[in-house]
Amino acid sequence: MSNPVFSNSPVFGDPNDKRVREARARAGVGATTTQTIDAVTLDKMYEAPSATPRETGRLTYDDVIIKTAGVFSLLVVSAAVTWTLVPGLWMVGAVVGLVLGLVNAFKREPSPVLIALYAVAQGMFLGGISLYFEQQWPGIVVQAVLATFSVFAASLFLFRSGRVRVTGKFVRWLLIAMVGYLVFSLVNVVLMFVVPNGGEFGPLRAGWLGVAVGLLAVGLAAASLIVDFDSIKRGVEQGVPAKFAWSAAFGLTVTLVWLYLELLRLIAIFRE
């Protein structure tokens, strides 16, 4: 998987992957037990209405939607407070958000408290950095927000309609492309400190090259969203515990934050 939030989870991964099977065995996911049931109890169970996924404690799409809305609301409120009162704390939010993001991504069991703290820290970062962009290019934040939701909606439509299928080849391509983009971004950051007058976003993210790279990054983020949707669909179909809705919400938030930042930078390059 491309998103470590899903790929490192024993419940969202591909069951054909050996590492996922081993992780599930360690976590006890999918284990069954045998017990003796008398005839009367068996008749009552047969006549009773079928239990819903919610009643059996299994993951549902409603769980994912509610948890995602909650995490995103925390992020938006934190961003608004930071924008209005303490925009200078954006660097603190960036560092804390990065640390909490890594901790949550590699935890086997979701922690609602840590995920909520991540949303608050990431909101601090986004609030401060968005204010900076808004002061440089008035109106850019609204444009980036609308563009983010548009890409999200388009990605969801492509996934639900079956026009884009998540296959092993698709995931491998996405993983290779994202590693290449990460290396490119690190080189660009280094050049920002080495090359004089490297531009607002680094020498490799200026002009038409910056536009091309920005469009590629937005495409990678959109493809990552599609893989996230597929992971959530697999989790629901396999009946994983409902608590993993927090992991799904966290994974979607991580991808959406990345998408928003890429669109913010891309629009700024266009407006320059």
Automatic annotation (TrEMBL):
It comes from the Bacteria. The keyword Transferase does not apply. Keywords: Membrane, Transmembrane, Transmembrane helix. The chain crosses the membrane at residues 89-106, 113-133, 139-159, 171-194, 206-227, 248-270. PANTHER family: CONSERVED TRANSMEMBRANE PROTEIN-RELATED (PTHR41282:SF1). This is Membrane protein.
